[in-house]
Amino acid sequence: MKNLFKVFSVFVVVGIIASLSTTPALALGNPQIDSVSPGSGAPVGSNVCIRVSINWDDEYRAMRVRFGSEGWQESSETSFERCFGTGHLSPGTYQIRVEASRKDDNSWSNPNVATQNYELTAGSGGGGGNTSPTKTPSGGSVPYGPNISQISFSPSGGAQVGANVNVHIKVDSNNPGAISLTPSCGNTAHAEHTSPEFDTTWNTSGCGAGEQFIRVCARHKDDPNWTYATCKKGFYQLSSPPSQAPTADFWVDDDSLVQGECTDLRWKTTNAEQVDIDGTVVAKSGSSTVCPGITTRYSLKAVGSGGTATRSLTVTVSTISATDAPDYSRYFSTGDVIQIGSDIFVIVNGQRRLVPNPETLDALGITRSMINNRGLNGTQLATISRGSDIPDVKRDRSGFDAFKSQYFPHTTPIVPASPTPFSQPESVQPSQESESNGGGVSTGQQPLGWDVSPDPYPSATDRVQSWFESVLDFISSEAKAYSEWLPRNDFPDSTECVGFVANTKCRDALYWLDYEAHAYKWVDMASSEKARELGVRVYTTPQPGDIAVWDRGGCGEANSTYGHVAYVSSVNPDGTFNVVESNWSGNHREGRRANVEVLSCMSFIRGGCNVTLPAESPAPPSLSYPWWVPDFAKQFYDEYLRR
């Protein structure tokens, strides 16, 4: 049994070896020169046609063949025929060389080679003239293409990449079927020509530096399929053009900041291989946000093969000393009333002027309930510059009249509707409520903390009434202070461009916009001190989220009277931008526009849709009730007025 197993094993091994020997893998063999026509000894001017073949496997890439020092003619076929004109050659011995390369040998560095010598004689028609005898392929009736006797270039010594090169072509035939030109790169003015001698232009744009060529093929008029065309390459040297010097533009959106603010650096370069800002490599063109704490100089350097370009700019930063108090007067206008401790002041041209008693306030035509500290505390209010006291209407009538005539000439004195605990000066005449007095009829209450001795002493009824009215005044004042930090009412018409942007896209714009402002006014309001404190800025180039503003007076196709505003939804690589808007061209409809061009009459408001209150600004007031405010008033204020 063991012997039987050994015999079986031998048969299996022999079978495997036999199967391997009967299906060998094809190796890249040597190329074969199968035939040359005409045979050796042909006269100069003959077309010499060479047929080659090769045994191959999957590693085969291509074969090429040449006659003497003529240009290579290449093919990926495993069997083909190529013809060479000899009209421009001299009698002598020439080598036919065939090379085959593998797939990993694109440079023909290690080809398999076959060679054969061939004799040209000075027989009839020698010298390459057009009288050379017509040759046809073996067994065929169509003649080979005419000999290509000249491919010359001008300028002859080479040119820079991108130059236009003149090419002169000549074939040895009075009536060629056609001549084709195929450049290795670029393009030629003629892809095909029918004259035996002509010039064409070769545009070398897009070519690489080094040796390039034009392949010229000529066919016989009876060979429309170019089956037996004669082909030849003319080689030409191209050099790299001199490197262009890099250029750089470097600018900043805002070169003057207050400490804590930020701005964007922007730059654009050409012909640069590397760009850096103060040693940090950046994109060749782009932007970067910087928030310098002190005045800072920024330097950009663009380096290329043609040299270096440098640009610098300085961002000036203003610092505010910790001891410098913010100017809180900017929160008030002339005629506003504030209270510091037990003192009442009227704001006049940015100063606080002490009011000596309620009657003086009434005589100025200012309602007592207008006290509104805008949520500021006494320490903050005390930083507002204090001017001279307002003359007492009861003790210095002439001084009071002069003061009122200068600062409040158009207000109407207020006459209390009920008896006041203070003596009414005889000079103050009763009058009806006027729209110009800004607050209606006074109720005659004593402002909270106003340290004035009543004369005569009020009755119990008057004191209860005064207390109740003081509670209402307190609630009204606190509610008004809180409302200063709420967005204003919506614009009345969202089909208008301003209403659409403010009501639907930029709700926070209602913090810094004047109610119902026309579009062209938005830039001025965004440039105001109040808007800047809220982080709003105006630029000349768009970013997503900006408010685009078209000025009035014929900015693009915007309304010439009111201008136009739109919300920037995105910005395109070419600098144009896309918007969401309403009432473009007066159609009162919401819509979108793409690829909108930036015009010199346009501005872009940034930060207006997402404002941030400055650190020194008062927050919405946190209410601390005096002991005498009843619970029902606290509940009413908390549930209704502070919502």
Automatic annotation (TrEMBL):
Annotated signal peptide: 1-27
SUPFAM superfamilies on file: Cysteine proteinases
Residue span, Peptidase C51 domain: 472-606
Compositionally biased intervals (Low complexity): 131-141, 421-436
Key words of the record: Signal
Gene3D superfamilies according to UniProt: endopeptidase domain like (from Nostoc punctiforme)
UniProt region (Disordered), positions on chain: 117-143, 414-453
Name this polypeptide is given: Seg
